[in-house]
From TrEMBL:
Species of origin: Enterovibrio nigricans DSM 22720
Cited Gene3D superfamilies: 3.40.50.2300, lambda repressor-like DNA-binding domains (1.10.260.40)
Recorded superkingdom: Bacteria
Key words of the record: DNA-binding, Repressor, Transcription, Transcription regulation
CDD domains, A to Z: HTH_LacI, PBP1_PurR
SUPFAM superfamilies: lambda repressor-like DNA-binding domains (SSF47413), Periplasmic binding protein-like I (SSF53822)
Top-level taxonomy: Bacteria, Pseudomonadati, Pseudomonadota, Gammaproteobacteria, Vibrionales
Alphabetized InterPro entries for the sequence: HTH_LacI, LacI/GalR-like_sensor, Lambda_DNA-bd_dom_sf, Peripla_BP_I, PurR_sensor_dom
Domain HTH lacI-type: 2-57
Protein name as annotated: Ribose operon repressor
Gene Ontology molecular function: any one: DNA-binding transcription factor activity
């Protein structure tokens, strides 16, 4: 019966490389993988099944990811980073959607536990709070949380600096000559929405600007929220010269509503978004926004989880990625407006 050593000799590679190709435990170039697989086929190598390997190693080389379903492409772009990073790390990924439902989250966790995943990535921003019954199930499993609010579960956390992002967004509007600035927040029960709003307030305070409470509207992180927020701004009387929307989806809804009313962006109102989802640079005008490194968020989550699986005793860490402003066409200098 052929062994991995026999395959290594025929393929001209190391035994460890053969093991990585057959067990899919590390990324190997396509050319080398093809040589190994061809050698294994020629020698009629009978690889042990994934199930058999998992019983032997107590690993399945599979990660589970639970994410909130949303129309926001932000989630899909982060998942793409997670999936690609899993592939390069030699892991499979099982993705579950909760649709913001606590029962579905419980069911998803139960399913993934039954499939004996090696660890969990949680990206469920609609499920705020403790949810002690859910989290208790994960207490002895490697877990990485992405952009969730404060939770009791001791685990690694990957997040963007939402406070800094909100501050930078508002500062960019101020530096472009705007003093009458409105804000569409996300749902303020959400940690990210609250932090972006706090960043907005800090920038306004540091600039010595007064916040008009009529120009602060709580949205829903969806296009509809931005669309409805514009009606609230109009009902308040005079419009601000610039508006910071807590994410790109609400900014797009706001711009759509403004266009319907014949209000030009950025001539009449400048608009700032947050997330830098792929499609916003192809809008007209292209959206000025705060860039979140979505692929790096996904990669950081996988890297942290794989490290946690390898060393469960390591203290939990928080990895915070810094946002940057992407200046485009939806913000004009106030002095250029007539």
């Amino acid at each position: 019966m052929a062994t991995m050593k026999d395959i290594a000799k025929l393929a001209g590679v190391s035994t460890s490389t053969v093991s990585h190709v057959i067990n899919k435990t590390r990324f190997v170039s396509d050319e080398i993988a093809e040589r190994v697989n061809n050698a294994a086929k020629e020698l009629h190598y009978d690889a042990p099944s994934a199930l058999a390997r998992s019983f032997k190693t107590n690993r399945t080389n599979t990660l589970g990811m639970i994410v909130t379903t949303s129309t926001n492409p932000f989630f899909g772009e982060v998942v793409k980073g997670v999936e690609r990073s899993c592939y390069h790390a030699g892991y499979n990924l099982i993705l579950c959607n909760t649709e913001g439902d606590e029962k579905r989250m419980k069911a998803s966790i139960d399913t993934l536990m039954q499939k004996r995943v090696d660890g969990f990535i949680l990206m469920c921003s609609t499920l705020e709070g403790e949810y002690s019954e859910i989290l208790e199930k994960l207490r002895n499993v490697p877990v990485v949380v992405m952009d969730w609010g404060p939770i009791s579960l001791p685990c690694d956390k990957i997040q963007d600096n939402s406070f800094r992002g909100g501050f930078l967004a508002t500062k960019h509007l101020i530096e472009n000559g705007h003093t009458q600035i409105g804000c569409i927040t996300g749902p303020l029960i959400k940690h990210q929405a609250q932090m972006r709003y706090q960043g907005f307030k800090r920038a306004m305070k540091e600039a010595g600007l007064t916040i008009n409470p009529k120009w602060v509207v709580e949205g829903d992180f969806e296009c509809e929220g931005g669309y409805k927020a514009f009606a609230s701004f109009q009902q308040s009387g005079a419009l601000p010269t610039a508006i910071f929307a807590g994410n790109d989806m609400m900014a797009m809804g706001l711009i759509n509503a403004a266009n319907e009313k014949g209000i030009a962006i950025p001539h009449d109102i400048s608009v700032m978004g947050y997330d830098d989802i792929h499609i916003v640079k192809y809008m007209s005008p292209s959206l000025t926004t705060v860039h979140q490194p979505k692929y790096r968020l996904g990669k950081a989550a996988v890297d942290a989880l794989v490290a946690r699986i390898g060393n469960s005793e390591h203290p939990p860490q928080i990895v915070e990625l810094e946002p940057t402003v992407m200046a485009r066409g939806s913000v004009s200098f106030k002095g250029d407006m007539s």
